[in-house]
Structure formats: C-alpha cells, structure tokens
Specification:
The structure is a homodimer.
Chain A: E1 18-22, H1 23-40, E2 43-44, H2 54-62, E3 68-70, H3 73-81, E4 86-92, H4 96-106, E5 110-115, H5 118-128, E6 135-140, H6 153-164, E7 169-175, H7 183-199, E8 206-210, E9 226-228, H8 237-241, E10 252-263, E11 266-269, H9 273-276, E12 287-289, E13 295-300, E14 305-309, E15 320-325, H10 328-332, E16 337-342, E17 345-351
Parallel strand pairs in A: 1-16, 2-9, 3-4, 4-5, 5-6, 6-7, 7-8, 8-9
Antiparallel strand pairs in A: 1-10, 10-11, 10-15, 11-14, 12-15, 13-14, 16-17
Pfam families (chains A, B): Ala_racemase_N, D-ser_dehydrat
Protein name (chains A, B): D-TA family PLP-dependent enzyme
GO molecular function (chains A, B): D-serine ammonia-lyase activity
C-alpha cells in the first residue's frame, strides 16, 4: 500500500534539519497495534494527530482501523477532504463558527464528537436541531488525567440522558483519555459508567479508551469496544523510556547537521525547538542521538541544539546526526513536509496536510 | 505606516485559539528600541525571527533600522522576496545545497553571514570563489552563551585573517549573542576582539551585539556599532519577569476559549503546546492570563491548556481568555496567520510569511 523506496539514499537527497519517517517501521507498528487490539477484542480508531498525513490514515484503515480520531475540526476537514468517512473528534466543540463547520462536516462523513458538560451539549443541540445529518456524541470521562471529562459515572449517565433526549444528537457512548500508566484502571471506570447507562435503558454503542503508553499493557475489559492510540505509529523517546517500545520501533527521526564544535565536549546541530520542540515529558534532554550513544541533547534554542558528548571524538562540522525526539506528535506539527524513507533509501517528501490546524 | 483598525471588534471576528498582535503596542515598542539604540550610538538590525512578517520588518526599517537579521536562509529568502535589501544571517551555513542558495541570495540583496570555524569559512570560500556578488562574513564570538562562537579574541583574530585573505569574502566584523543579563560584559569581550583585529590592520566595520533582555540595561561601549534585538517588538512573559518590560508592552497575546470547567479550581482552554509551545524559560507556568490575575496556566497538552484559579468564580464554557505566552518568538512560528488588532478593534489577518523556515 505505502510507496516503495527509489534508488537514492536520503543522505544524498535531504537538506537539514528534516523529519524522516521510515515506512518499514511504520508498517510494522501499524501491524503490531492492530494485532494487539484484535487480541483485546477492541476496534482501532487511531488518532491522526501523530502523523497528520492522509496517506498514513489510509494505511491504518487498510490494516483494519474502523475510522480515525482527530482533535480539531480543521484536522477532520483535511482528512474528510482525503476521502476518510468515519471521524471522531475527541474535543468539546464550543462557539458558533466551529459548530457551523461541524454541521457541514457531518454532511460528508460519519461524524462523532465528545461532550463533558450540559453547556457543550446545548451548543451541539442548537447546531444540529434542523441539520441534514445527525452527529454521534460520546460523553468524555475524566478517569484520572484531570483534563476534560465528567468526574463520576453518575455524571456520565446524566449527560448520556441529555444527549439521548436531544433531537439531532445520537448518544454514541463514553470515552476517556487515560492518564499514562492507568489504562486498565480507566477502562474499569468506563465499565462502571457503561453499566450504569445501559441499566438506565440507553444503548451504549462505543466504550472508547486510548493511549499508546498503555496499549501493550492492556487486558480485556467487560465493556471496552474501541481503542484510540496515536503515537504507536511513530513511537518516540518517551515511549522507549516508558518501556512501550524499543529504539528500533521509532519511525520518526530528526536529521541534523553539525554546524559547530566550538569546545571540547560540546557540539551544536542545526535542529532546535523549531523542529524538536521543548517537550520534555519529565525526561532530561531533548532526544536521543542514534549515531552516537555518548551524545546527550542537553539544551535547545530555536535553531540550535546543544549536544554534549563523552568520547574523545568530536563530531565534525558537516556530519549528519539523527535524533529520536522526546515526543513525535509535536514534531510532525513543526514542518511543512516530512521525508518518507525506507532504511537508508529515499521514498519522497510528503506534505503534512493537517499541520497547524489549531481550530 | 502600519494599517489602521476597522470598525469591528476582534472579539466578534476571530475564532480561537488565535494569535493577536496589537499594532499600537508594536509601534510603541519599535519607537522605544530605536530611541534607546540612538542613545547608545549603535544602529539597529532587528531579528525578524520574532514576527516573521515582512510588514513588520518594513516598519522596523522605516523607523530607522539599517537592515534585518535572520537565522535561516529560508527566512532571509522570504524577506528578500518582500523587497528587503540588507540582511545578516547569524548562522553558520553548512552544506552545498545551502551554500548554493546563499550565493543566489547574495545576488539580490546586501548579504552577510557569520562563521565560527575555518571549516565554515572554507565552505563559504568554495561557494563564493567565482560568485557574481561578494558576501560579508562576521566572526561569531562566544561571550558566555556557550552555543556557537570562537572562545577567545585571539581565535576571532585568526578567523578574521582567514576571511580577509579569502577571495569572494569580505570580512565584516565580529558579532555575539550574549547570554541574557551579560550584554555589557559581552560587549567588553567584543571591544577586546575588535581592538586586536584592528591592531592587526584589518578593517572591522561592524561590532554587533544583541538581545532584548539587555537592551534597556546597555551602556555605551568603545566598539559596539550595531544591536540585534528581536523579542522587543512583541515582548512576552519572560521579558516581563526579567524586568525588561511591563505587561502593557506585550503586543502578542493568545486568544483562547474556555471549553471545560470540570472541577472546582480547574478550567481548560483550547490553546495547548500547538500554540503556546512548551517553552518555560525557567519559569513556572505557561503564560499569564490577562483577564484574570487569579489564574495560572499550570500545564499544557497539545490542544489543551489547564488553568487553575483561586477565586470562587469559575470561568464559564465559551468565555474568552487572553494569555501572554512565556516566549513570543516561538508562538509566531506555530500559526499560519496572526490577527492584527489595535486595542479592542480588528485590523486584519496577516500570513506569517517566514513561518516554518527551518533550512
């Protein structure tokens, strides 16, 4: 499905800094996730925020995903433009402009959103009262992440009732984004909520969990029907640190050039926060240098990455170094295009179609 | 020079999250910087990485700047396309592709770059050996930032000699980006280097310092001829914290909508790291909420900003809050367009023409 490599090596093609995506690793990661979810008895609805590429969304669907997840309407619009017809937006949609876009989007794909308050549901109700298409609405549950979401299964039931009773809205189930490491506990929370809602006579089609950190540590749950992992397709240094994957499973790397080795033990590369971002995820350092285990990316400015190295051998100006970033999703958002590769070989540049979609 | 506001209030025009730029504040900041540099007897060469907008680069030039500073060739190309004809790229240019672009760029503007090693100078020498246009080269000096730059004035002299002796290259002077708070010490370092180079009989046209953090704390220096501030045009929370400006001097704010107030004391807005970035600059929290002094932006995910508030009054879903970010420059790089405003009134959307220029 995904394109093959040509005869050129990326080393001779790509200018730096650049984001490389190894499709061999991507294909392996997609397969592994699908197998795991098949084993858990849940469908996969990958979050496209990690790659923001229609090409890879289609590859995920071809491997068995039932649809995709997006965070913003703009991302969903780009994916609908690319022919993807089943989209869940896991975000409270607030404001008349966005609600108008949502109504138009529902006319061209099977669309669901989430809500965690009566206020959000009222907005959806206004927008879809006389709409051509209905919209699925899941209740977002705070199972420990302390972000959005209702705080108790009882509150989830209350909102489920409100959605069920609202013309134009279809109650579609419950969802959560679990705090990393709490995927199983979060699913028990959802079990309770789903039981309560079903006992009240309300059909609860989807019980949706997610998150790559817990994907391979999940067990079967009574109610869980769907899993929404995102980062698994690329993986990153934070997931290696969490034990969720190995370095060889990291499909996204940042190719950099050494531009200065001004002092013993210190070298500067041409990737800073404008590519790697400042995301630390509780770790120290801003990435892992693949070519040299003795290197630490100790600090970043916008266009400079400062690397300290332990060995006697200083990196030479012009040398290429690849960095596995702390957090792959945010790196995709920094660049207009990524470079698809397979091993040492170049495939092509691919525009990051859903980059920068903030509304 | 800069456009005036229309009759509409931005509150009724702009969808969130959005980056607002108040041109009234911008004009005041440009004027204040120019006056300070006039007083110090140095020319201004603003760094456009903060705004990435030809419109504001032209406003800086109209106010008296002698040219602009850019960090990457891509930024310089965008500015040259917009008719700006004096550009300094404060970055080691390494690699044949980039050197080719640099040579072509030198044909259409007065262009300078920096170098901190013989290796970088050799690359420039190859590229400009038979070029139509010469290029100015300044020696980058590490005066305490511990990033790029030669470590001693003696090394600076050595590279100045090498540049002077190389056909196609014009030795243009010395430059530094000082560690914040060390602007005056850095200028003394440059004084020493400039004296050494002049004593060797090499003309040293430009002695260039920079940085907004020290701009208003600078004193006159024997050799300093040029100052390259960037952030002063927008300012941000880090500069307020450093005492370099007041909150009322911050021209860039991020407009957000409250999307959830799920628990007492906690509210969620629709701006996360995809707009505000993870830059902390040693502070705690990710921004300052203008409308509510009791609010702290305690953490961000990609699309969520988590705010804790002390008062009894919970922000309401749909409410607009403006956030002064920790670091304005990186916020400009996250969005395809910013919204120009004057006070409460809307001017227009402006594409961030030099956004995402990483090479």
């Amino acid at each position: 499905m995904l394109p093959q490599a040509g005869p050129l090596r990326w080393r001779n093609v790509v200018d730096t800094p650049a984001v490389l995506i190894d499709l061999d690793v991507v294909e392996r990661n997609i397969r592994r996730c699908q197998e795991q979810c098949d084993k858990l008895g849940v469908t996969v609805r990958p979050h496209i925020k990690t790659h923001k590429l229609p090409l890879l969304a289609h590859a995920q669907l071809a491997a068995g995903a039932v649809g995709i997840t997006a965070q913003k309407i703009g991302e969903a619009e780009v994916m609908a433009d690319a022919g993807i017809d089943d989209i869940l937006i896991t975000y409270n949609i607030v404001g008349e402009r966005k609600l108008g876009r949502l109504r138009r989007l529902a006319d061209r794909c099977r669309l669901s959103v989430v809500a965690d308050s009566a206020s959000v549901i009222e907005g959806l109700a206004r927008a879809f009262a006389n709409a051509r298409s209905e919209i699925g609405v899941l209740v977002e549950c705070d199972t420990g992440m302390q972000r959005c979401g209702v705080l108790t299964p009882e509150e989830a039931l209350k909102l489920a009732r409100l959605i069920s009773d609202t013309p134009g809205l279809r109650f579609a189930g419950v969802m959560t984004y679990p705090a990393p490491g709490q995927g199983n506990a979060a699913s028990e929370w959802l079990d309770d909520a789903a039981r309560l809602i079903r006992e009240a006579g309300i059909e609860t089609q989807t019980v949706s969990g997610g998150g790559t950190p817990d994907l391979y540590a999940m067990k079967r749950h009574a109610s869980l029907t769907e899993y929404r992992p995102g980062s698994y397709i690329y993986n990153d240094r934070s997931l290696v640190a969490a034990g969720a994957c190995g370095v060889e499973d990291c499909a996204l790397t940042v190719l950099t050039t050494v531009i200065s080795s001004p002092a013993r033990g210190r070298t500067i590369v041409d990737a800073g926060t404008k590519v790697l971002t400042s995301d630390l995820f509780g770790m120290s350092g801003y990435g892992m240098v693949l070519e040299r285990a003795d290197c630490s990316v100790i600090s970043l400015n916008e266009e400079h990455g400062r690397i300290e190295y332990a060995s006697e051998q200083a990196p030479v100006v012009g040398e290429l170094l690849r960095i596995v970033p702390n957090h792959a999703c945010v790196v995709s958002n920094m660049v207009d295009s990524v470079h698809l590769v397979r091993g040492e070989y170049y495939v092509r540049a691919e525009p990051v179609a859903a980059r920068g979609q903030i509304t």
